[in-house]
Amino acid sequence: MTTSAAAAGRRPDHRGHYDAVVAGGGPAGAAAAIALARAGRSVLLADAHTGPPKTSESLVPAARMLLHDLGIDPRALDSDHRPCHGTLSVWGSSQPQQADFINDPHGHGWHLDRPAFDSMLRSHALAHGARVAEHTTAGRPTRLSDGGWQIALTTHDTRRTVRCRWLIDATGRRARIAPHCGAVRHRYDRLVAVHLRLAHDPHDSESRSVVESAPDGWWYTAPCHPTGRLVAYFTDTDLTPPALTTPKVFLDLLATTPHVAARAQGRPPRPGDVPRRCAAHTARLEPAAGEGWIAAGDAAAAYDPVSSQGILTALYTGKCAGEAVDAHLAGRYSATGTYAARLHETFDGYLLGHRTVHSWEERWATRPFWHRRQHPSPPDTAPHR
Questions:
Q1: Which of 22, 126, 217, 332 is deepest in the core (most CB within 10 A)?
Q2: Tens digit of each residue's pLDDT (9 = 90 or more) over 55-114
Q3: Would the pLDDT of 283 be above 50?
Q4: Torsion over CA: 264, 269, 274, 280 (sign)
Q5: Which residues are CB-contacts of 330 (< 8 A; sequence separation ≥ 6)?
Q6: Pair 321, 168: CB distance under 8 Å
Q7: How far is the C-alpha of 229 from the C-alpha of 204, rounded, in Å?
Q8: Going by DSSP bridges, is the β-strand pair 158-169/149-155 parallel, antiparallel, or unpaired?
């Protein structure tokens, strides 16, 4: 294939046969597809466009290095995403603690417009030669006698079948593909997020994220593109107040917070918006890779959003998963096992840090939310759905 064809996002017709099929068109799936396509592999990226609506999230400055590694100029984000210059944390004390990015060698981060960010990544995968199937759901895979896979792809009312040598599960916390390949999903808590976007305020010029702990969870707020503000409350499913997904109940609970409420004062929900609920629990897949398949992003390891590492980890694991598959296809068969082992080691470190961070909050140590995290129980095996 010519360089010009690759740059235009075109590859020869593979007649339904690919080196890899990536299920999931978020940051992890797109990063995996980019890594494989840049290595010259034939790859199909199936983006279902399902699941909860994407919210505004922050991308830390260190992500610039990953974007460079994926061939993306970080400056391309500046036009569609608001800069993030640091964080304000009210955690373990009523006094806010500030962390600014002014001294960060990588510069500022971003408050992402998630749909725009994900679309940019998929376009980049397409430009490098990956096939991108929008609004396409990958079904249950079937192992073939030659060691490859057959998988059904459903687009609206149309169903077709493709074959591939490798499957990459980047379907988020649900991990739709890997459990069919023998993996087990372990869930460590029942954290959920209820989030609401507030209307534009021309006087809101703050560029930092704010995190504030509360008796039964914690709050987050940040600017969201183009001119609004996101507010989110994180708690456990059994501690969620009744009717929290109604604006009045959500805003009444928000009003009990000194710092987050001050940034939302006088701002109604954005027209047509209501509080929405989505999963935010910690989970991991055991194992994260096997014969002919590999998982990336939240499908492999889902971190508590308080870590602020979700998008960064998705990009990193997606890139590494793509590189590991490429290496395996080239005959370096230990690459996928090494990837899984490193992911496992990193997650163990995360669990230790997660417990430490929650131990800093002593004001409500006996409340269920905080006690569960300071004295964690063994994980549950999450059912595959």
A1: 22
A2: 668 898 889 999 999 999 998 888 888 888 889 999 999 999 988 887 788 888 888 888
A3: yes
A4: negative
A5: none
A6: yes
A7: 9
A8: antiparallel
**∠68-122-312 over CA atoms, to 5°?**
50
Q: Rounded to 5 degrees, what are φ and ψ at 164? A: -155, 165
Other Cβ atoms closer than 10 A to 265:
10
Instruction: Answer whether 367's CB lies under 8 Å from 352's CB.
Output: no
Query: Could you please report the per-residue DSSP string of 86-134?
Result: EEEEE-SSSS-EEEESTT-TT--EEEE-HHHHHHHHHHHHHHTT-EEEE
CB-neighbour burial class of residue 195 (10 A; exposed 0-12, middle 13-18, buried 19+): buried
Digit-coded pLDDT (tens) for 144-173 = 999 999 999 999 889 999 999 999 999 999
Q: What is the pLDDT of residue 308?
A: 82
| Digit-coded pLDDT (tens) for 312-343 | 999 999 999 999 999 999 999 999 999 999 99
Rounded distance, CA 214 to CA 5, Å?
A: 54
Token duo for residue 308: 């602020």
Structure tokens at 335: 């690459």
Question: Which three-class secondary structure state does DSSP give residue 42?
Answer: coil
> pLDDT digits over 186-201, tens only?
999 999 999 999 998 8
At position 280, the amino acid (one-letter code) is A
